[in-house]
Amino acid sequence: MNKNKRDREFYSVDVGDSTFTVLKRYQNLRPIGSGAQGIVCSAYDQILERNVAIKKLSRPFQNQTHAKRAYRELVLMKCVNHKNIIGLLNVFTPQKSLEDFQDVYLVMELMDANLCQVIQMELDHERLSYLLYQMLCGIKHLHGAGIIHRDLKPSNIVVKSDCTLKILDFGLARTAATGLLMTPYVVTRYYRAPEVILGMGYQANVDVWSVGCIVAEMIRGSVLFPGTDHIDQWNKVIEQLGTPSQDFLMKLNHSVRTYVENRPRYAGYSFEKLFPDVLFPADSDHNKLKASQARDLLSKMLVIDASKRISVEEALHHPYINVWYDPAEVEAPPPKIPDRTLDEREHTVEEWKELIYKEVIEWEERTKNGVIRGQPTALAQVQQ
């Protein structure tokens, strides 16, 4: 495409503190949020005739960590296709060449709210268990491809007014094959599993703990373990759930175990005490959903020792969840990740930049007249 024609396709607009340079098909840009990975605004897509969300990755090439994260998010979003995971509709850059390349824009489905807003609402058992079911379906789909999300929290789970739910933000997700210890600073602190806080190895059900914390917050209306740092976070966990067994402590490395063993010992509280009936909605006659079932599931998710914690698969069969069980949703074929070595790879910023540029250009070549070939027609439906 010649330079002048490409210039004519784009326009710039200030959104909050940032300037977005976007394709002219996207109009009415309005800021809707910002995070470590970028700024997000809503827009109207004149070609798909629907509202969309546009995320501008923030300074993706300022260092290797940012560049790798941007590449990971783009690659994972391109290959995931599940109703409970946010769909990627378009990727573009306004720059004309690799030399000038500095901005990446991801266009996604627009939802109505994130779970932070939903937590403040009074939910009945149907809605609560349906939201939980959808979270678990999305996570199971990611785990099927060896992707552990690692950063599940209310702000990156989005919903629509009809109670449909999608997971977003894969910048921190990593494929499970690495076996590397996570840094304590990766996952947003309140939802961080004990094995992460204590620097242990972790497995897929690290995401189950995060879901348990989110559901507990939806029931309580406040954060379950509001730690000020990761030491305080651990104290909040054991004050409520009790000091774990000696078996568990023996799995810790020596210096961590010494610290943990020197903490006061806590008996913890029963789940009936932590989540009394009064916090729950009335029992549901329709689906026979009860507070006791929700509490039982929470008691299996919020288990300090990951080897004793319920798996995603087991949680999906729990009585509080399985009223919604649909094999087409639960057992959808897992995404095929083209690059299984994604997490071990190390490159210079310039090399990451070239890889990302190739992904963006390849996407642009796959699209024709602004509509992606092979996209399910549902994605082209107008969102109100």
UniProtKB/TrEMBL annotation:
InterPro entries: Kinase-like_dom_sf, MAP_kinase_CS, MAPK, MAPK_JNK, Prot_kinase_dom, Ser/Thr_kinase_AS. Its cofactor is Mg(2+). GO terms for cellular component: cytoplasm. It is found in: Cytoplasm. Its main location: cytoplasm. The keyword ATP-binding applies. The keyword Ribonucleoprotein does not apply. Residues 26-321 form the Protein kinase domain. One of its GO terms (molecular function) is ATP binding. GO terms for biological process: rhythmic process. Pfam families: Pkinase. SMART domains: S_TKc. Its EC number is 2.7.11.24. Keywords: ATP-binding, Biological rhythms, Kinase, Magnesium, Nucleotide-binding, Phosphoprotein, Serine/threonine-protein kinase, Transferase. It catalyses: L-threonyl-[protein] + ATP = O-phospho-L-threonyl-[protein] + ADP + H(+); L-seryl-[protein] + ATP = O-phospho-L-seryl-[protein] + ADP + H(+). Belongs to the protein kinase superfamily. CMGC Ser/Thr protein kinase family. MAP kinase subfamily. Responds to activation by environmental stress and pro-inflammatory cytokines by phosphorylating a number of transcription factors, and thus regulates transcriptional activity. Responds to activation by environmental stress and pro-inflammatory cytokines by phosphorylating a number of transcription factors, primarily components of AP-1 such as c-Jun and ATF2 and thus regulates AP-1 transcriptional activity. May play a role in the regulation of the circadian clock. This is Stress-activated protein kinase JNK. It comes from Xiphophorus couchianus (Monterrey platyfish). The lineage of its organism: Eukaryota, Metazoa, Chordata, Craniata, Vertebrata.
